[in-house]
Design brief:
By secondary structure, this protein is an alpha+beta fold. The protein has one domain: Roll (Diaminopimelate Epimerase, Chain A, domain 1), CATH 3.10.310.50. The protein is 59% helix and 12% strand. Strands 1-2-3 form a 3-stranded mixed β-sheet, sandwiched between helices. Strand 2 and strand 3 form a beta hairpin. Helix 3 packs parallel to helix 8 and helix 7 packs antiparallel against helix 8. The radius of gyration is 15 Å and the shape is globular.
């Protein structure tokens, strides 16, 4: 394990996430998620963390593993058609993951989710966190609704 990585994650303050996603932006994201879920019956969640928990760093676990753990903890999988989707943003590592439940994963390839992640990364690189998140949610909602209309 690299000591610099450990120190960065250990000492990054939580306000870093609030700076990228202030309360006003969070409210917009919540509304977008609610509207998206109503169009498809899917469970859509968005999680942004400033840094990885320390036990991930010591265990040499990736941000993808963290996304999968949150997918389970938040019960995103708990839908009738197994069509939940979690967007995970790890701000310090600048890593974005989309975890899709098995019902949607059999119909939508990883390449499509990766394309959404790359679009978000480009927006976030311009510090357009709100625009990037909302555009990603809209695109995910359209994909899920195409396969699972309400």
């Amino acid at each position: 394990m690299r000591v610099t990585r450990l120190l960065k994650h250990a000492f990054i303050p939580s306000w870093v996430a609030r700076r990228a996603f202030p309360a006003r932006t969070i409210r917009k994201i919540e509304r977008a998620l609610k509207e998206a879920s109503s169009r498809s019956g899917a469970e859509l969640r968005f999680v942004a963390e400033a840094g990885l928990p320390l036990h991930y760093l010591f265990g040499r676990r990736s941000s993808r593993r963290r996304a999968e753990e949150l997918f389970s903890l938040l019960r995103v999988w708990d839908t009738e058609h197994n069509n939940g989707v979690l967007v995970y943003v790890q701000l310090l590592s600048r890593h974005i993951d989309i975890v899709a439940d098995r019902g949607i994963a059999t119909r939508v390839g990883q390449a499509e989710w990766d394309a959404v992640c790359r679009e978000m990364e480009r927006a976030f690189a311009r510090a357009a966190y709100e625009d990037g998140a909302l555009a990603a949610i809209e695109r995910i909602a359209a994909v899920v609704a195409r396969h699972f209309p309400a």
